[in-house]
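RECORD TYPE: inverse folding
INPUT: structure tokens
STRUCTURE:
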């Protein structure tokens, strides 16, 4: 009888510990998304590992380090970037989310938002890595958005407007936002 009690107690404690870890990891991811939406680079830095990276499922690198992540956040601030958390669940040592991304490019160019499946790998209470995967319908959204972007590029060429989309830092965000606002006001 005593060994049965110990077995049940061990199972309850184990399940409780797993739920606590699940909840903690999901809370870290939610805090990360919230900090990104508030452009709080300092808070993001406390939530990600020193060697943080983001890659697409095909292996291509989206963000190669914390410095580049900080630049993207500051670019995002200029572009009113938003992440909407649509779903969240825990599997193994990671958190899987469905997230919807929008920014001022979408508003000014009347583009569609993008949805991704994100797999966050965590360790020692920090996000170590994000793997980005596309969802069904992504290629149609990409094609639609690309056409809208081509119209914008044509407008810029015709009107002698210059900007640098190659880099995603605060300066290029300010520059791009200015050109997008001009484009938007001409296309209302």
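DESIGNED SEQUENCE:
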């Amino acid at each position: 009888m005593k060994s049965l009690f110990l077995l049940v107690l061990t199972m309850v404690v184990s399940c409780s510990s797993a739920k606590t870890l699940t909840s903690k990891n999901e809370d870290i991811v939610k805090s990360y998304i919230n900090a990104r939406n508030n452009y709080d680079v300092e808070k993001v830095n406390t939530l990600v590992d020193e060697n943080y990276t983001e890659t697409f499922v095909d292996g291509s690198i989206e963000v190669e380090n914390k410095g580049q992540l900080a630049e993207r956040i500051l670019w995002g601030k200029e572009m009113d970037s938003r992440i909407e958390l649509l779903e969240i669940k825990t599997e193994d040592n990671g958190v899987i989310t469905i997230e919807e991304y929008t920014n001022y490019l979408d508003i000014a160019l009347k583009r569609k938002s993008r949805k991704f499946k994100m797999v966050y790998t965590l360790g020692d209470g920090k996000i170590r890595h994000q793997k980005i995967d596309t969802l069904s319908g992504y290629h149609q959204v990409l094609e639609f958005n690309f056409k809208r972007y081509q119209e914008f590029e044509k407008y810029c060429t015709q009107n002698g407007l210059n900007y640098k989309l190659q880099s995603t830092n605060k300066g290029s965000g300010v520059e791009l936002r200015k050109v997008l606002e001009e484009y938007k006001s001409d296309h209302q």
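NOTES: The longest strand covers residues 82-91.
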